[in-house]
Amino acid sequence: MSISSRTARAVYFLGIASATAALALGAAGNALACNIRDFSAVASCDDNGKGIITVTDTDSTGKEATVSVYLKSNGADARKAGEQTVTGTSQGATITFSEAWAPNAEYRVRVTVEGVLDEDISPNLTTPSNACTTSETTPSASTTPSASETLSSSATPSTSETTAPATTGDTTPSPAAGTSDLAETGASSSTPLIAGIAGVLVVIGGAMYFGIRRRGTSKTN
Predict the structure, then answer these.
(1) How far apart are CA 59 and CA 56, in angstroms?
(2) What own/partner pairs with CB < 8 Å and gap ≥ 24 does 154-163 have?
(3) Is the Cα dihedral 7, 8, 10, 14 positive or negative?
(4) Which pLDDT score is estimated for 153?
(5) In the chain, how many domains are there?
(6) Are residues 60 and 115 in the same domain?
(7) 80, 66 in Cβ contact below 8 A?
(8) pLDDT recorded at residue 160
(9) pTM for the model
(10) What is the radius of gyration, based on Cα positions, of the chain?
(11) What digits encode the pLDDT tens for the residues 11-48?
């Protein structure tokens, strides 16, 4: 069965059009997909001088994500610091974990979106080198009665206490943990299939088209 030059060219250009559509679909899917780069984490101190870890979600698709925070020690998870859910917004939705973190501690932040995402924020969160300071009152030693004071058997020496001034915690947030440069995970699953079909069409159409042209050239010679 002979194939005309017109048919070969039609298949060839159909393949090119399909490949273009696949690329456009893949780009659109990546732009709208929820991915790990929508999440960031930072360790700081609250207004009371207590340690906190804040996670921000800028996923504009509004998918609910589960965020789990783990303290790392010697390369392994030492304990789970907490777990919360967050629904992202383009402006950024935040959740806060109360955590009395130590200076230069390492935390792993896991983000899970059912059927879409299950990754750690990379690199891991490293806390600032200065710890938070909580306000507290420290009593001083009791005063001692003077040597000239005469005590009777029924009298008890009076004591007084002085209170040291309270220290104020540093509430200035310190930057920590960047966002990940990992590849996006939520792109349309049909994109590879479309791209593969488009590639086959391009190859088949091109082979037929140039084969027909070659046979036509050999006949004229």
Answers:
(1) 9
(2) 163/137, 163/138, 163/139
(3) positive
(4) 46
(5) 2
(6) yes
(7) no
(8) 47
(9) 0.51
(10) 34
(11) 666 667 665 655 544 444 444 578 999 999 999 999 99
60, 42: one domain: yes
Question: How many CB atoms are closer than 10 A to CB 96?
Answer: 13
Residue 173 half-sphere exposure toward CB, CA atoms < 13 A: 11
The C-alpha atoms of residue 40 and residue 46 are separated, in whole angstroms, by 18
Q: How many CA atoms lie within 13 A of 95 on its CB side?
A: 20
Structural domain for 94, as ranges: 34-132+170-185
Residues 91 and 199 in one domain: no
Give dist(CA 160, CA 58) in Å, integer: 57
For every residue of 81-139, DSSP letters joined together read EEEEEEE--SS-EEEEEE--PPTT-EEEEEEEETTTEEEE-SSPEE--SS--------B
Strand order in the sheet with 93-98: 39-45, 51-57, 93-98
Which tens digit of pLDDT belongs to each residue from 77-120? Answer: 999 999 999 999 999 999 999 999 999 999 999 999 999 999 99
| Beta-strand relationship, 64-73 and 106-113 | antiparallel
Look at residue 39 and tell me if it is in a domain.
yes
Q: How far apart are CA 9 and CA 4, in angstroms?
A: 9
Q: Could you identify the residue written with the tokens 């393949």?
A: 15
Query: How many helices and strands in the chain, by DSSP H and E?
Result: 2, 8
